[in-house]
Amino acid sequence: MRIWTACRMLVVLLVLLGIIYPLAMAGLSYVLFPAQADGSLIVRNRQVIGSRLIGQSFTSARYFHGRPSAAGNGYDAQSSGGSNLGPTNRALIDAVRARASAIREHDPGINRARIPVDLVTTSGSGLDPEISPAAARVQLDRVARARDLSPEAVRSLIVANTRGRFLGVFGEPGVNVLELNLALDRMSATTHIARNE
């Protein structure tokens, strides 16, 4: 008799906690937070171009570059994870040196000591969509030059796209690279139209 009670209880809990509760939470999230429930997608010209939560690879001099990724071939959400290399690991040291050299090639004149750590190391998830404001400022001159924009205009975009600390206390300020690059595209298009008028 006890076995049948246990089996019935198992079925009830399975339906309640395995089906009804997840569906209720999903439905509630779509009602209260529709954008977040859909993955915080960024849509441009009716086409999804990315998510605010997952970084992308930018290599052109016209764009700000994000944090390196160790997730699969880069920013692969199915392979999310860090490199798990320790600070004395030769592979990590070599990778950091190579990334620092690449940054100095893209942004000549930058002293190695001025390169922010988030531009040469991967995050724990490998999907980090943000860089520090310092990492954005290091790239400012290159982007302004490549787009024929004033450094002050690009600096104002960095400030406008910088997220502060949560509740003013928790975490560090960050700049979403995809959103910053989209703002750059809008500014460049507006500047180009204004110059041609």
Rg over CA atoms, rounded to whole Å, is 22 Å
Report on the biggest sheet.
3 strands, antiparallel
Helical content stands at 40-55%
Query: How many beta-strand segments?
Result: 5
* Unreliable runs: none
Could you tell me how far the N terminus lies from the C terminus, measured between alpha carbons in angstroms?
A: 86 Å
Q: Could you say which structural class the secondary elements and strand pairing correspond to?
A: mainly alpha
Shape: extended
* Beta strand %: 5-15%
Number of domains: 2
Indicate the mean pLDDT: 85
Q: Secondary-structure element order, as H and E?
A: HHEEHEHHEEH
Structure characterization notes:
With about 200 residues, the chain is mainly alpha-helical. The chain folds into 2 domains: about 40 residues; about 160 residues, no CATH class. It contains 6 helices and 5 strands; from the N terminus they run H-H-E-E-H-E-H-H-E-E-H. Helix 4 packs antiparallel against helix 5. The chain starts with a helix and ends with a helix. The mean pLDDT is about 85.
Features:
197 residues; mainly alpha; 8% strand
Give a short summary of the structure.
About 50% of the residues lie in helices and about 10% in strands. The protein has about 200 residues and is mainly alpha-helical.
